[in-house]
Design goal:
mainly alpha, disordered C terminus
């Protein structure tokens, strides 16, 4: 822990626009990854929807993110990164406000309304996140880039850690105040309103950021010229598509598994989730050290293998402690893997193509999550949770193999990367 803290305190300083963007990332984490991600599962289940619908509900979010990833990159290139991020936050707030209105809409819309709300939320989040990554790239230098991306991972974990346990406690407090049980959707509906309220605050620091394309303090070295880098981006897409599978199964169904199969209370599930979120706060601090010593590619491969391996106890021993281990490891390793992926890709692609290329890679990520979520509900209904988790683990090992091949026989661009400078 002391070594992690020393890595953190020794990080380079960031200028104003980077600090404002990091505040936005923190508020997004509290709202999107903390409050809403935790509560939406229990709200949908308390409304009486089955697991097949729950799979469709989760897949709508992932598929919307996938569909919007490329358009988000194009819009960022044409409208500007900062303006597109602002639009994304506004759209996400509106989508979050739609979900707790499910019981108020006409009956003809009520079945599809939750799905539509998740499509709006994820579409807005795509507009923000796809353009945040290249914006941060342009605002940082070689010396502080890994630290900046690691900081986004820390803030994501910290925000989710703050939001998740509060979201776990809030339904119980509301239920006692309005005199209903926790099997009633009302406490979850009322608690969900906190999510758009918190996210709306992110517009304040976001409005204080200048043009991210022009406000960077450092001139980047030219990397490549000419056409879109098809080969390395295609390989990265394959890696992302497979490697996300184990984490996607846990992200989409671990909470539902602990709720419906293990019969744990929402408070207990919140504590388990919070443990992973707490460790995720510190995990990204390892990225600058790992990148210097082994490179971002090796870090991606190692975290993929680790995430898949720690899901195996859940397959063999479907008990609460195995589920807790799987969810914990998935959160922690994802907290390291995501900023490593962002830097790995941004530094090997010419500035002009970054938004589009990152959109393409995130399309693959959304497709992976979408297929796992959509098919996961069907698999659970027919063959149970264990088979779903086994499928995710297998696909993630395939993804790790693809990254190993990329490192063993790199393409021209990937070979030029090596360890982060």
């Amino acid at each position: 822990m002391t070594k992690l803290l020393s890595l953190w305190t020794d990080r380079p300083r960031f200028h104003h626009d980077v600090n404002m963007l990091l505040i936005v990332v923190g508020l997004v984490a509290v709202s999107f990854f903390g409050i809403q991600t935790f509560l939406k599962t229990f709200y949908i289940l308390r409304l009486g929807y089955g697991m097949v619908f729950f799979g469709v509900f989760n897949s709508a979010s992932a598929l919307s993110y996938m569909v919007m990833s490329l358009p988000a990159g194009v819009l960022g290139s044409r409208l500007g990164l900062t303006r597109t991020m602002r639009i994304g936050i506004v759209v996400t707030v509106l989508g979050m406000a739609m979900l707790p209105l499910t019981e108020s809409v006409p009956d003809s819309l009520s079945y599809y309304w939750p799905v539509f709300s998740m499509m709006v939320v994820s579409g807005g989040y795509a507009l923000f996140s796809i353009n945040m990554v290249p914006a941060l790239m342009g605002l940082t230098s070689d010396e502080n880039r890994n630290s900046a991306y690691a900081t986004t991972g820390v803030l994501r974990g910290l925000g989710a850690f703050v939001g998740t346990p509060f979201a776990g406690l809030l339904p119980g407090l509301i239920a006692s105040m309005i005199g209903v049980g926790l099997d009633n959707p009302a406490p979850y509906r009322l608690a969900l309103w906190l999510s758009p309220a918190v996210l709306a605050l992110a517009l304040i620091p976001l409005m204080r950021i200048g043009d991210a394309e022009r406000s960077g303090k450092h001139r980047e070295k030219p990397t490549l010229g000419g056409s879109f880098p098809v080969v390395p981006v295609s390989m990265l897409i394959l890696f992302v598509w497979f490697s996300q599978a184990a984490g996607a199964t846990c992200y989409s169904f671990c909470n539902a598994f602990m709720d419906t199969e293990l019969q744990l209370t929402t408070f207990t599930i919140g504590i388990i989730s919070s443990a992973g979120q707490f460790a995720s706060i510190f995990a990204p601090m390892l990225l600058p050290m790992l990148a210097r010593r082994r490179g971002n590619g090796w870090t991606l491969m190692a975290t993929t293998i680790g995430g898949a391996a720690t899901m195996i106890p859940l397959i063999l021993i479907p008990q609460w402690f195995a589920a807790a281990l799987g969810q914990f490891a998935s959160m922690v390793l994802s907290a390291v893997r995501m900023p490593a992926l962002q830097v790995y890709q941004m530094e090997m692609i010419e500035k002009h193509w970054r938004s589009l290329a990152y959109g393409a890679v995130n399309t693959a990520m959304g497709l992976s999550f979408g297929l796992v979520s959509f098919g996961g509900g069907q698999i659970i209904e027919k063959w149970g949770y264990t088979n779903l988790f086994a499928m995710g683990v297998t696909l993630s090992f395939v993804g790790a193999t693809i990254m190993w091949m990329m490192l063993k026989r790199p393409t021209q661009m990937v070979a030029a990367r090596g360890a982060v400078q």
